[in-house]
Amino acid sequence: MHSLFTRTLITGCGLLLLSGCATPIANFDAISLDAKRDAAMADESASRTIQHAQSKIELGKSENLRFYAPRHLELAQKQLLEAQEMLTSGEPDGVVKTVAMTSLKTVEAGLNVKKDILKQLKPTLDHRQVLKDIKADQYFPADYLAIEEELVKLIDLMEDHQTIKADAGQKLLLAEMHRVEVATIEYIQLQPVKDHLERIKNKGGASVAPISWDTAQKSLLQAQALISKTPRAKGAIAKATVAATKAAQHAEVITNLSNEILDASKDDAEAIALRMERWLYRISVALKHEDIRHQPLDEQAGEYAASIEALMRNR
């Protein structure tokens, strides 16, 4: 059987007589004093106090103290185990009750830490949920992991009651979370557009269709700027994405046609012109318009447009 002094030392130097020893949580001296007082006043057996401590630890687990106050929960579990061993070894009830009560009070302190975290770190915790909702961990796993690690550091500061340092760290973390949120939304919304533009670039779009290419680039930049400023403006982002997508598609159409014209031989050139004429002629047939293929293409288009407008007015 261990001596009372040895037993007390094993519990982590948590009791009042060893209050100068290092502990893994802040304000442990106050917790120990409170536990010693309540243990002395409690009209119950050490076994009963141990049961209460067990129930409190289960509550702590259900409140996810493994995340919000891990050192409190770990220490409380060690204290409970020590109290159980002391009871089995026949140590005096008063000492066992104090150790068990210290376990209980440590969990209560951890629950208070959780309340403080939920209040002070609410912006970070809310932003963390946003990142989860958009699956940032799947698109940028390394960045998301780094954010989680920084959040753990903030929680560690809160466990130590270093609220000023935690607040300063939170400001930096929120900026990084915004960056990852923007990167994720941009990837989801605009990566297909970027890939499309890369294919157009490989076709020489920037040189053979510079006006359409520049328009597509500007449309992409506008969408990126919108996402960077307001990544949660779903409606506006959707419209900007559609605009960027259509601009890229248009750039590809013009690039393909430009390349076809530039690569055409003398014999192919007339075939391209006649094909364009047939496109307009299909509209002429649908409108039951007189054959005006002898006119320049722009004039044909103008007449067909006027005919369609007249039909619309008469509906």
Keywords:
mainly alpha, 0% strand, disordered N terminus, single chain, 315 residues
Question: What does this molecule look like?
Answer:
This protein is mainly alpha-helical. Helix content is 82%, strand content 0%. The protein contains 15 helices and no strands. The protein has helices at residues 4-10, 28-41, 46-62, 65-68, 70-88, 93-120, 122-133, 136-139, 141-159, 163-202, 205-208, 210-229, 234-263, 266-287, 297-313. The longest helix is centred in the middle third of the chain and has 40 residues, at 163-202. The protein is rod-shaped.
Radius of gyration, Cα only, in angstroms? 36 Å
Beta-strand segment tally:
0
- Average per-residue pLDDT, rounded, comes to 91
Q: Strand pairing plus helix content: what structural class?
A: mainly alpha
Compressed to H and E, one letter per element, the order equals HHHHHHHHHHHHHHH
Distance between the termini: 103 Å
Strand percentage lies at: under 5%
For the sheet with most strands, the description reads: none
Shape: rod-shaped
Summarize the amount of helix as a percent range.
over 70%
- Contiguous helical run count: 15
Uncertain runs are 1-22
